[in-house]
């Protein structure tokens, strides 16, 4: 007998008992729905993290000057009891780095030369403070950052007009800046084009020190999230910033970006060794080299464990659901004993009867699984939207879930179907 | 000409070897030739249901041989028995036994479905047989929408679809009023005239007497086997 006939028969039988079929499916719906919901949320979350990491640069390596033997760096502070916490504070004296403790321009030049074959970008990025610039009734706000020219590469800036900062800008201590298109419209009015701002200057002050900066380039501001930021980043050469704002020379942190194909682990090791050599004799400070990649990995692991936990609960629900299916199939077989007898008298072989009931169980589970997937994606997507992640329903998970629910149908449908198939036709025909 | 049914020394015993062992049939010899219309009549407890189950290949005898249309069913397994029933036996039951929530047409197609007949042929053949029993107009009705007589006519159409060697009718008028009973019996007589071999199982002497050959069963033995004069197969 063709499978399509069995499917037709099964659908007919389910139609005759719609409510019963639906209630039977409930366990499967809940089980599959829960798994799909959590996977949808999880994938959306990791998708969002990945996206963020990509924009921040997950492969970026950060080099920073840190205090030696910083006990806070190695312990989880929250896990300690009060006494241990006090002991930590008593034994640790925080000190701020002296200019001699910081990375110098020469170090960076030397490093850049030695690692030229592996290095795509070396970015120095010092926060200089927030600024406000007024132009009549217009007012622009920004975060002033002293950066090295590679910032454009690292932050994947897209220039709309002019140029980015150059090495000469920093070397000559020029008071130049690259601003965002948003800054331009804030400062010059909404009709101003990026090109209009080139060569113009704006006045501001940083912590009381007046500053006049000439705009040499305008980059496109990338919108992140839904709210429009009032302030955007304003870039000036870090050397100019240090000089004009009378900051101590030297850098506490720098960001490195490797060329494609460079293994990050050995690269980080060599970088640590390079900078570490400068600090071998420094009693208080050293350099740490880190990358976000590892943080992402550990987060993925947490996510995996969470998925596993939810899946275990879902598995129990599916088990209960499967038993429900088995139960209802037993009822169905009993109810239709006479029909089975008639079919056998008319020439249905055992495996035809077996297949008929297995197909029925599989269809219950399949429909339940499909409803579960739809429900799970809906709930998961709603959750992702509420938590402000981009929704990313997982197609492989849906396929696996549907296939798995069908497998449940086969597994739990087999025993009742076998009972039907092995009925004695005479007994079955006589059944009232 | 070879007989369609050839039974020799059929014994049926239930619960063999147990304390409550019970022998129902005590050695039945029965030969049915092609084109015969045989009534097996007997009171309840006479063993006619057991004999019908064996003739219909629903059950196997404990002893004896049974050759149905050239097939020795003694050695057949479960699936082979299904196959024999499917191709050689057309069942008509007292309570019709149509499959619920399934149209008359689909019910009639069922034996062909199990025989692996392609869908288009099934449909044509089912329609043709429903026309033959006068149910063509109602072929898309479900059993719950049909009267008893109509159900039995659908069941007769169903019993004929695979062109079986024997039409085996078990009290086919038992659940019908006298008028519809008459109608159903007329269909059997028509089929007999067209050359069908029919075995009718009944407790009603009156109904049996309509048939050209009457076998009377009592206490698991054949009490009488009478052929009427002037019937087409009286010569055997």
From TrEMBL, chain A:
Coiled coil: none
Full protein name: ABC transporter permease
Entry similarity comment: Belongs to the ABC-4 integral membrane protein family.
Cited Pfam families: FtsX, MacB_PCD
MacB-like periplasmic core domain boundaries: 22-273
Transmembrane segments: 21-42, 308-331, 352-375, 395-415
Protein's membrane topology: Multi-pass membrane protein
Chief location: membrane
The ABC3 transporter permease C-terminal domain, residue ranges: 312-421
Taxonomic classification: Bacteria, Bacillati, Bacillota, Clostridia, Eubacteriales
Keywords: Cell membrane, Membrane, Transmembrane, Transmembrane helix
Compartment list: Cell membrane
UniProtKB/TrEMBL annotation, chain B:
Superkingdom as given in the UniProt entry: Bacteria
Residue ranges crossing the lipid bilayer per the database entry: none
Keyword terms, alphabetized: ATP-binding, Nucleotide-binding, Transport
UniProt key word Transport: yes
ABC transporter domain ranges (all copies): 5-236
GO molecular function annotation: ATP binding
Statement: the UniProt record of this protein carries the keyword Nucleotide-binding: yes
Database matches in InterPro entries: AAA+_ATPase (IPR003593), ABC_transporter-like_ATP-bd (IPR003439), ABC_transporter-like_CS (IPR017871), ABC_transpr_LolD-like (IPR015854), MacB-like_ATP-bd (IPR017911), P-loop_NTPase (IPR027417)
Protein name, per record: ABC transporter ATP-binding protein
Protein's organism: Ruthenibacterium intestinale
